[in-house]
Design goal:
single chain; alpha+beta; Phosphorylase Kinase, domain 1; Aminoglycoside 3'-phosphotransferase, Chain: A, domain 2; 3-stranded antiparallel sheet; 16% strand
């Protein structure tokens, strides 16, 4: 069983800084002192896109073993997630090493390790049952390690890693929420989101709310654990290289990870019903209520 690890948001690199370089990272170590990350101008030029787009694809600098994720919807909090996981959990939860970030205008640039692999989504159909099982067992170990990261029990919260509002895409277009001190506070807020546009809200009776569990624990959560965000080796015996895209990461009730993973997969699909339960504790009854709220919100 993985050892429990305590994490304090005060340990994070300062998210208010527009420029951050992790000089202890492998990008700088072992190289000459003049090595530097490409500027935002260079990244944009290398993207080959003349006009700004809401979600530009990451830009690769293969000769530097570097990939840059950037855009107006990228957040410093995602870089902080990568930094925290690498620092606290090391190889127990494999993620790309983060080298630094830049904030330039409306865009955030995250500079990270370029891992040469393929997504589980792209290779899944070509894997044997044995290889699929091995990968899911490894994912189970990864998620167990992640769920053994704990907050200060005297000062719990539900929110982004830096103790700010929640960043999950299902809340896009909704009033910002968080941080919350308890699961009940979060559930009260979450359950109220679909009905904000209705008049006489105070007299509305929500028949689903009682089925959201107010007990449980707060866990550090990836929040978007589907096949496209799991990077594996592209040849030979498949192995998990990294869990990527921590844009939704943060502290959530323990039911959130499974509910999001189930919601992003086909209802009657084999991935949800056979393979996800190998690495996440199934919480099907809670997911049914979760899905009702998400659908009522019009989230995707």
């Amino acid at each position: 069983m993985p050892a429990t690890t305590r994490f304090d948001a005060m340990q994070l690199p300062d998210g208010n800084q527009a420029r951050m370089d992790f000089l202890e990272s492998s990008f700088y170590k072992g190289h000459d002192s003049g090595r530097c990350l490409p500027s935002p101008v260079e990244v944009r030029a290398s993207s080959g896109r003349n006009r700004p787009t809401p979600q530009p694809p990451p830009v690769k600098f293969e000769h530097l073993d570097l990939i840059v994720k950037y855009g107006p919807h990228v957040t410093v909090a995602e870089a902080q997630c990568l930094w925290m996981i690498k620092r606290v959990l090391r190889e127990q939860v494999p993620v790309p090493e983060v080298y630094g970030w830049r904030v330039d205008g409306q865009d955030v640039f995250i500079y990270m390790e370029f891992l040469r692999g393929t997504t589980l989504k792209d290779r899944w159909d070509f894997l044997s049952v044995g290889d699929r099982t091995t990968l899911c067992n490894h994912l189970h170990q990864i998620m167990e390690s992640l769920r053994h990261v704990e907050q200060d029990p005297k000062d719990p919260f539900i929110g982004s890693i830096s103790r700010h509002h929640l960043l999950d895409i299902v809340f896009e277009g909704q009033p910002q929420g968080g941080p919350f001190a308890t699961i009940k506070e979060f559930n009260d807020w979450f359950s109220g989101l679909p009905w904000l546009r209705f008049p006489n809200l105070e007299s509305f009776q929500d028949s689903w709310r009682a089925s959201l569990p107010d007990t449980g624990t707060i866990k550090f959560t990836h929040g978007d654990l589907h096949q496209a965000n799991i990077l594996i080796s592209s040849t030979g015996t498949p192995r998990v290289l990294a869990v990527v895209d921590w844009a939704h990461g943060g502290w959530y009730p323990d039911y959130w990870e499974y509910c999001k993973a189930a919601y992003t997969s086909a209802y009657d699909g084999e991935w949800r019903n056979k393979w996800v339960p190998l690495f996440l504790n199934p919480m099907s009854e809670v997911h049914e209520i979760f899905a009702e709220y998400i659908n009522a919100m019009g989230a995707i």
